[in-house]
Amino acid sequence: MITKKTISLDDSNISSGEVILIDKKTGVSSFYIVKKIRGITKVKKVGHAGTLDPNATGLLVICTGKKTKEIYKYQDAEKVYSGTFYLGKRTETMDGESRVIEEKPYEHISNELINKCVPGFLGEIKQMPPMYSALKYKGKPLYKYARKGVNVDREQRIVTITKFEITGVQLPRINFRVNCSKGTYIRVLAEDFGKALGSVAFLESLRREAIGDYSVDNALDIDEFESLYKSKYN
Length: 234
What we know:
- Helix content is about 25%, strand content about 35%.
- By secondary structure, the chain is α+β, with helices and mostly antiparallel strands.
- It has two domains: about 10-75 and about 210-234, Pseudouridine synthase (2-Layer Sandwich); about 80-210, Pseudouridine synthase (2-Layer Sandwich), CATH 3.30.2350.10.
- Strand 8 and strand 9 form a beta hairpin.
- The mean pLDDT is about 95.
């Protein structure tokens, strides 16, 4: 595995099969990181174990070669996220990247109310997959229907949240940290939490801190990986 603790890179291992921990910056897609690593290493078989939206940051587990067959292990592992909910506004895509479609007061929200609502989001909970997601319907991602203004009937999914902590409150912002199962939509969590508080909300920022036993603290950013690789093989 290639992490910040890596002393050297073994080119033969990357070609045959390696796990690389990358700390994705904001503004780039998960596919961009995969494409970048393909270009740096000249290895064709490269994949990631779980997409992060372009404006989200944090841990990407990248697999090369034969290790791509083990991607499912990381996809199925528990994830840890931190971020910020923004209260009083609801957006089309449930994040800060689209227009506001609803506004509601949030001044009534107290720390006591926030703490009272947290337990309702622990354990097995139901979530409605958002229209702006990569979930497929009749072979097409839902977001393609959403962009055309078409709403598709979806079924709620059961996901598991093992830990949900409020790490700071400075209204209209609430900072949080959550441990959750595969398939959990943090954007949906933001919107549903806003409703539980008697308001509306969207996900303002998101960072993936861990996947299973792997932490973003041990991850390289893509520039560090490229510099490390080129210093050895170019």
